Amino acid sequence: MSALLEVNGLTKRFGGITAVNNCSFEVQEGSITALIGPNGSGKTTAFNIITGYLKADSGSITFQGKQIAEPNPATLYRSGLSRTFQQARIFPEISVLENLIVASGYSWKGLFGARTTKADRVRAGEMLEEFKLSALADFYASELSYGQRKLLEFASVLMSSPKLVLLDEPTAGVNPVMIETMERHIRARHAAGVTFLIVEHDMQLVMRLCDPVIVLDHGAMIAKGTPSEVQSNSQVLDAYLGS
């Protein structure tokens, strides 16, 4: 496998606090890579820098062999890199189906004109079927449960046919059944060729789903390896026990 994403020397400070500290790691194409670490270790900040929601103080990001000088969320989305958030970002005031159509690249106003195509609506319908949301297609997204919102957000980021998906706490706050559902969708999409980088606190899920596992502490990578290697790494154990 080759590196689909390369992060080199990322640093981000907020005042006197260094959230990401000369951080470097790679995500290999075809992998389900975990990015874990104690609270405050810089995981989400790293996600935000990679996807253009924060600007790094220094460092570089390379995606598909091309250095991204100024990461921009919309540009990255169109080029095959998409992400979810800890709190699902959806459009609550439009329907579940319309959320997916917007994710196809249409503006809000485009929903009410002739610019949406039958093919886009068919694709959105297929995505709803895959995620078992078809019965809710005409519901306002605000009417969905917390877990259903997470599924809708996941389905939305897949509308761009991404090569790499960054999932930020995909199972946080959901019940065990929804955790199994989310894992099943990740595995299915991975089997279809999507690469994943996942921030997740559910270590049981990480250990059965992800390989390799990257560990951050105080904004820097302290370990990378298979789940079993990371579990037995003394530096990793010290970071968690001391957090």
Structural class: alpha/beta
List the domain count as a whole number.
2
Shape: globular
Mean pLDDT over the residues:
91
CATH architecture of the largest domain: 3-Layer(aba) Sandwich
Overall helicity: 25-40%
| Topology, number of strands | 10
CATH topology of the largest domain: Rossmann fold
Helix/strand order? EEEHEEHEHHHEHEHEEHH
Class of the largest domain in CATH? Alpha Beta
Strand content: 25-35%
Q: What oligomeric arrangement do these chains adopt? A: single chain
The biggest beta sheet, please?
6 strands, mixed
State the fourth-level CATH superfamily of the largest domain: P-loop containing nucleotide triphosphate hydrolases
Characterization of the model:
The chain is of the alpha/beta class and 243 residues long. It has helices at 43-50, 73-79, 96-103, 118-130, 146-158, 176-191, 203-209, 227-231, 234-241; strands at 3-14, 17-28, 32-36, 58-63, 66-67, 81-83, 164-168, 195-199, 213-217, 220-225. The protein has 2 domains: 3-87 and 162-241, Rossmann fold (3-Layer(aba) Sandwich); 91-143, no CATH class. The chain has 9 helices and 10 strands. The strands form 2 sheets. Strands 6-7-8-3-9-10 form a 6-stranded mixed sheet, with helices on both faces. It has a 4-stranded antiparallel sheet with strand order 2-1-4-5, with helices on one face. A hairpin with a 2-residue loop joins strand 1 (3-14) and strand 2 (17-28). The longest helix has 16 residues, at 176-191.
